[in-house]
Amino acid sequence: MDQVPATATQIAVDDASPFFSPVLTPASQRILVPELIGAFLDALMHEMGFNENVTMIDRELLNIAQCSRLFQEEAERRLYTSVKFFVGSTRARDLATVMRARTAKYVRYLKIFNYGAARGRGDTSIFSVAGIPFSLMTGLDGIEVHFAHARKGDDIAPYDDRLFQILDRDLQDNILKGFRCAHPLSRSCVPFLSRQRTLEVLQINLISIEPVPTEDVVNRATFPKLTTIIGSIIDSPSLSSIIERSAIQYFTPLHTFGLSPGWSSYSHQLITLDVAHCQALDPSTVEEVARCSPRLQLFMVKLDHQWEEKKINIFDRLTQLAHLEVVGILPEPSTFNDYFISTVGHIRACKGLRSLVIVVSTGETNQFCGIEMQRTVRKAWTQTTPGVIDIIGWKAKHVERIELSRKKTAA
User: Fold this and answer.
1) Which domain covers residue 186, as residue numbers?
2) DSSP annotation of 347
3) Are residues 280 and 405 in the same domain?
């Protein structure tokens, strides 16, 4: 059999030592285009399990970025899409350094942890939020701010507002789609939001005891794309003003809830309403909520003692909600068993209902115990064994499903 002449490349490889490393070619001569490299990395991430193995995937992407100049850019693009910045840590310093050097443009979502009082390293310390190059983050579309753990009563104490000054100075206009901060903020911290008319999701907790200035920048802001609000003090002028001028569809008030004078002007467009973080509601309030919110698909509520005392079934108050699919109920803990037995028999009154949870707080933050019920394809109902329920995850799962369903319908 005739032998095929060896090519120059084969000869070079055969003569090379086991540790042979090919010479890197200039970018203009590379055979693999970024799209192919990206597709390879995406396939690798998919094989490794995406969300299930985030730490492992990040470590692998970092190794690839450090070992291959050819793959570096696309690996870093994926590695720095979502960034966690722990204020005051050595990791924060290293992260700030590499973002300033080349990767800030890849950041899409930034989570800031351990924020709060000044750290004593100086206003320009790369360990602090001053090290975050917001001016270089041209693709940033989401920010979450998590304050350091505070003792009870410290959440309204004076805090370092440097981050919000930096955002007002350096953040580009109209790039954010989401901003989340559960810690109480003064109005002096949020002027930067008025230049983010692209906002779709807003979690804000304005200090209620703070006087409202006549020229409140938050009151004058308009967010035409805003659909989701997680906020406190619904009847505060600032938050009410934002809600009334936006097409809010997903609403989660914190601490208190009331039927404000402008309630009916925006409640008709609500798709999800979670008032379980607020005070317990009486039957007449729930009935008015249902009357003014005909598009509701998810409703979560805490019930006061009148429901059990007067033997009122909540589903009788919700039957007019033709699109209702998901309900979360938090009855009085002392009446949980009796209320569950008396209520569950009327579940079929809401014909479109697909999922139900009835839970009570265990006393720990965001920990609930109760029963979950699910309607099967044959329209029968199944229930779980009573136990701990991840109510936050349960809600998030259904909100995501509802949103995907709406997008498909719109398409």
Assistant:
1) 80-209+217-248
2) G
3) yes
